[in-house]
Structure of Glucosylceramidase:
Amino acid sequence: TTNNWVAGWIEWNLALSVEGGPSWMGNSADSPVIVNATADEFYKQPLFYALAHFSKFVPPGSVHIGLETEDDGGISNIAFLTPEGNTVVILMSTSDESTSAIIRDSTRGDVEIDVEAHTSIEVDATFQVNRATKYQEIIGFGGAMTDSTAINIHSMSEAAGNNIL
């Protein structure tokens, strides 16, 4: 979605119960953290790590820049230029197999990396960083401490609740 002019991301509920609530509408939802109050445990889901990754490496004021490829090999990709001048490239594979990718940067050289699993075929992909192509400025990434989040954190022991925070 950031490749389509999104400037930020707010995950509405950071922590919900194993039933996906509570919700005044009675529906269930997913969240980055699932709280199992009965077991006094919480589980970090893949969305937790995606949100953490973006918020750590793509600070507000970063600019979405060009990352070009003829064949991405099924690897989702995006690049940013941070206010400090650092280039951040984020690659995500949903293939069941590990694959490799090459990131080409005319000023910093090439980097070959392994992209961990999720397709039953081996794919190699090459991405060219293009700092001259600039898109939207990033406002930020974060989450909301909704009533549901507070209820779920409060349903656990103080120690477990503090570990979520």
Summary: The first strand starts at residue 8 and ends at 11. Residues 61-137 form one domain. The radius of gyration is 19 Å. Residues 46-57 form the longest helix (12 residues).
